[in-house]
Specification:
Length: 308
Amino acid sequence: MKQTILGSGGAIGIPLAKELKNYTDDIRLVSRNPKAVNETDELYPLDVNDLSQLSDAIKGSGVVYVTIGFEYNIAVWRKMWPPFMKAVIEACQTHGAKLVFFDNVYMYAASAIPHMTEDSPMQPPSRKGAVRKEVYDMVAKAVEEKKLTALVARAADFYGPNNKNSALGEMVAKNFLAGKKAQTFGNPDTVHTYTYTPDAAKAVAQLGNTPDAYNQVWHLPTTKERITGQKWIALFARELAIEPRVQHVPNWMLRLLGLFIPMMREFPEMMYQYEQDYIFDCSKFEKRFGWSATKPVEGVKAMVEGMR
């Protein structure tokens, strides 16, 4: 059975292609400039600005994984996400493919952040969250109407070997490797759980190849250790054998940083996630599949090694 990854070149798409090899040799990688991960991968170049090609990219697939990441910019999200997902759903319906949507937590209410479960209320407090909810609702509606077989795999903020552009990558690892202070925002004494990208990829591949996992929402394996922002910084410092020097970044400085780091320009509206505990409950997955997330000390080590 052919399995297709839309957005095959990113922090999730690459390790996902490796994991899918455990289930099939028939893998199609779709992106602007796809590169083979496995010897037998089929490559399908696709410019998402031209969605007329999307149906052909999905044709013949048994399972389609959406791991694409559009530029972290609200104007881009509003323009790209809804029509893209509409086209994906229609193509999956046309070709009888199942859909696996790799999602985030932005649609959850701010009050849910201290303990997020698959049943947390969806009342997004940010503009980007509103877009994510709109897209999720499209998938959920198609499933409810029995027009689509799909599952939603949600991750917390993530980190990993190929994830330099994450918050931990940009503000901690990159700075330490450059001999600078780590930067932190929000309240560094609150707990923040992160999803390790190789764990996410392994879990998404497993879900996609488990028939009774469909038509549900799943939280992917995420560290259960209650680690604060300050302690995450200390883990990186210890791995690099340096002092954990830290600069706190107030909201106004985030906007200034945005002049040089575009992703930072989009952070102020997401600050509610960093000013309170952020705990991502993945017990549903652990009970069903019997394994847990990589230990943070091991994940940090792999991330640092991948960025050297």
